[in-house]
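2024-03-11 09:14:02 INFO worker-7 job=invfold-0412 stage=load source=structure_tokens
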């Protein structure tokens, strides 16, 4: 988790190694805004029917509680894209999905799974031109 200090520098707020999506909300601060990077691992079923570790995806979670100071909200909102760029450039982290929430309690396992799981593109049908009206 990253936080922005009063001098507007970015600092590491904490590292939680063994947490899953269900417990993610409990480790994020509910009084101050935070940038959280969560490594989501999908379970995939192998050909033998056994579950194994699937491909992972890094999820960027931006939380900004409504009870936080107005200046903090403005600074975090304006620095979000710069933080993502810096983490990608200097840290080599490739963010797969982004989630924004006003309260850490909104971050549930279902929400994270829904955001990360691949969405199958809808098949778009072309415009069906209406038939010409007949003569009366």
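2024-03-11 09:14:09 INFO worker-7 stage=emit residues=136
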């Amino acid at each position: 988790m990253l936080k922005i200090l009063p001098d507007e520098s970015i600092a590491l707020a904490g590292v939680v190694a063994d947490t899953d999506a269900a417990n993610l909300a409990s480790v994020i601060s509910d009084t101050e805004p935070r940038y959280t990077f969560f490594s989501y691992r999908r379970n995939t079923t192998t050909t033998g029917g056994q579950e194994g570790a699937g491909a992972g995806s890094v999820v960027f979670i931006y939380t900004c509680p409504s009870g936080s100071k107005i200046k903090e909200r403005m600074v975090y909102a304006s620095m979000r894209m710069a933080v993502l760029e810096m983490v990608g450039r200097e840290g080599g982290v490739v963010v797969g999905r982004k989630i924004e929430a006003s309260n850490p309690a909104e971050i549930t396992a279902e929400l994270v799974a829904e955001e990360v799981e691949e969405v199958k593109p809808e098949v778009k049908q072309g415009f069906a031109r209406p038939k010409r009206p007949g003569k009366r």
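2024-03-11 09:14:09 INFO worker-7 stage=report msg="The longest helix spans residues 70-91."
2024-03-11 09:14:10 INFO worker-7 job finished
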